[in-house]
Hints:
By secondary structure, the protein is mainly α. Helix content is 79%, strand content 0%.
Amino acid sequence: MESAVRPADVFCLPGYLAFWTASTVSAFGSYITGLALQVLVVVTLKGTATDVGLLNAARWLPYLLLGLVVGAMVDRYRRMPILVATDIARAVLLVAIPALWLLGWLSLPVLMGFVGAFGVLTLLNDAASQSFVPRLVPGPALLAANARLDQGGTVAQTSGPLLAGVLVTLAGAPLAVLIDTASYLVSAAMLVIGVRVAEPKPAASGRRLDLGREIGEGLRWVYRHPTLAPLALSIHGWFFFNSMLGTVFTPFVLVGLRLRPFELGVALAAAGVGGFGGTLAATRLGLRWGAGWAVIGCHALTPLACAIIALAPATGGHALAVAMLAAGQGVYGFAMGAENPNSLGYRQAVTPDALQSRMNTTMRSLNRAMIVVGAPIGGLIADGIGYRAALWIAAAGFLLVPALLAATPFRHARHGDTPTGTTR
């Protein structure tokens, strides 16, 4: 079994508890906003599944257009100031959505514009955050640190949709977004007060900016690496089919099954419960099976989850439909909760510090590009041939991901691997 820091120990590391708290609080608000915006499109603006897909695409379009550039830029700066500044900026931006709604000026194109701007700030924050973790904790603690971060996220994923369902029902979707504003302000405050890390001066800071060369370094590191390359390509495929699932799910529940926003929140909260269980198992699975087989095994659960959701009945009572949806979301959440710490911890461990932001944004940019393409396609399929047909197509696509990844060298990936390919 590979040596690593136990999950309980990472909270003793200086600054980690404050960083974890900031991340968890921010995730809590984000899950509320994620549900509220989709309900806003379907219920308040009377949109279709295609409209939901367009909104999702707008949020992630900045990753496609700017991701590689942002990765190169973030590697040239200290990461903590970026985290604080983007939290504050997102809090300010979100206030505009309920303000425009109250004025009667909110429409789908306007909402897409704001969501796109929000996506730019999230891109910056993501690039800095994932690259900051290896500076906050030592290499042997990366698996445990990411597992704890995901546990906080799954707690937010459990309670956020439930609260969102209540808030949307009582106050309306636009006003529910204000909770996320407060969460970003709290996150920024926790980072400023509780995290003290002496970040090194970036190696590229005194060098003339050469975006082409620096972006190329990130691309070559990821797509020429013997294990990172197949991992990246498999995750791109997963994101494509997951964007279809994410786009279809809300209109399937609200329109196809005629459930209420609160019941949608209950179903989505089950993903958080499953995800929490997955994060608890993530470290043990990764150390026992290795990063490779842990990730492959988790991906194999996703098509099962999608199939359970697709089988939720439109007749027989709301309770049965909600139970089926929750069961599918629970399996889905477990798979994600156990997979993410293993894949993220592994790729952080095998990447040099100078390439962390470029590695992360290279992979995330292409992942989000899959959302930009897949979300509208999922909406069009759902509107054209039905919600269930779109869900079954997504399930079939999910089957391909673990099957293809198991045929690559990534199946041998271990958490003891380092940037040089040696074992600690």
